[in-house]
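The instructor's notes for this session suggest beginning with a concrete chain rather than abstract definitions. Hand out the sequence below and ask the class to guess, before any prediction is shown, which regions might be ordered.
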Amino acid sequence: MKGELRVKRIYQPPSKDDGYRVFVERLWPRGVSRERAALDVWLKEIAPSTELRKWFNHEPAKWPEFMERYRSELDADPSFIGEILDRLAKGNVTLLYASREEEYNAANALATVIRKSKFKSPR
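After discussion, reveal the predicted structure:
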């Protein structure tokens, strides 16, 4: 990978170091305009399913099982990860999340999957 994969809360101001900004949740965050978000793309399809998100409910004890289930969902359609990897080959990519939970959120889960998986090399 040429670029760096980063994770950031969508409420934080954009930075030139962010590179390609990808919002990775299914629901749009309250109080954030599209302009303020400064997104390049909203990949709601790559977010955990509504059922998985509701089951997890940001409970740290469920994180290991959440990661397994989320990885299974991602395996079903790797095209979105391919899109992120293509962007990483060109520069930085920042995965954005809205949750107040800084550790146990969809963006960190996705970053972990990308960093520790067969998806490491571009398509």
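Then share the key points. The chain has a mean pLDDT of 91. The chain has one domain: 5-118.
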